[in-house]
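Run log // design_07
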């Protein structure tokens, strides 16, 4: 039986295809500030919403990786995209890692934006209960937003993020995907993958700090580069959208198989610079 088609939005009609995988509890709405920064002549973007969120809110599931992989690849097939780049934020970054494991021949490159690592979150019991409590308690989501952005941003923004997440998600999907992110570990399956990765970590992200990225993705992947996003926490599509668009598109142009040219106005990736680290 074929999986149901996820709800999604499109942006751009360029030759390089990009699937943008959101975090949890996020959907397409969280990418609003990024959209006008994207180069739609070079790239075609698709923004799917997972089962139980946003445009896919009415689709139920078991919230597993096999189901997620099947849903994402079904959308790519529907769009007639045999190969594509992946941009994955937070839980979407973990899903991008799993897609490399399960369907790596279809993935040109990955931009992992403040990603959850493939080894899983493995929180302490009290932290686990707090995270799962966000299914019912807005205050838990607000506190998490403050922690993951360095307590730097306004209550107005935090309340909008919380309200938008609550309107987007079903309780079952929130609990299902968060439990998956906490309990999974497929890191051994990812070790040594040759897929190019750009790992972006926010300077003020207490949940997924740069040191965690160095200990995980940068140690596993021979073609991974870490770049730290200055003056940013966990949500660069909200906090630094122009910077994020420039960096991810510069990276994808490097792995575009000759279909798009480098942007002469975009400086090269600062590999070796003060905010960049190459994997060993």
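design_07 sequence
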């Amino acid at each position: 039986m074929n999986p149901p088609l996820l709800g999604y939005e499109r942006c751009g009609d360029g030759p390089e295809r990009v699937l943008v995988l959101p975090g949890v509890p996020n959907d397409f709405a969280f990418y609003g500030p990024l959209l006008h920064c994207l180069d739609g002549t070079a790239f075609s973007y698709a923004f799917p919403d997972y089962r139980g969120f946003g445009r896919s809110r009415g689709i139920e599931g078991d919230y597993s990786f096999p189901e997620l992989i099947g849903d994402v690849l079904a959308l790519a097939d529907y769009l007639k995209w045999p190969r594509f780049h992946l941009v994955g934020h937070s839980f979407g970054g973990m899903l991008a890692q799993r897609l490399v494991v399960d369907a790596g021949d279809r993935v040109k490159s990955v931009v992992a934006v403040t990603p959850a690592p493939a080894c899983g979150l493995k929180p302490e019991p009290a932290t686990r209960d707090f995270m799962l409590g966000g299914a019912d308690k807005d205050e838990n989501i607000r506190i998490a937003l403050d922690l993951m952005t360095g307590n730097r941003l306004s209550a107005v923004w935090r309340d909008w993020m919380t309200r938008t997440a609550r309107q987007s998600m079903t309780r079952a999907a929130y609990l299902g995907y968060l439990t998956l992110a906490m309990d999974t570990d497929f890191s051994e399956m990812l070790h040594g993958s040759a897929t190019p990765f750009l790992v972006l970590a926010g300077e003020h992200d207490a949940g997924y700090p740069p040191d965690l990225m160095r200990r995980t993705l940068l140690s596993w992947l021979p073609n991974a580069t870490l770049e730290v996003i200055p003056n940013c926490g966990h949500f660069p599509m909200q906090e630094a959208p122009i910077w994020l668009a420039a960096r991810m598109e510069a990276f994808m142009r490097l792995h575009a198989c000759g279909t798009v040219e480098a942007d002469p106005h975009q400086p090269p990736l600062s590999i070796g610079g003060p905010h960049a680290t190459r994997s060993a």
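Residues 29 and 164 are 8 Å apart (CA to CA).
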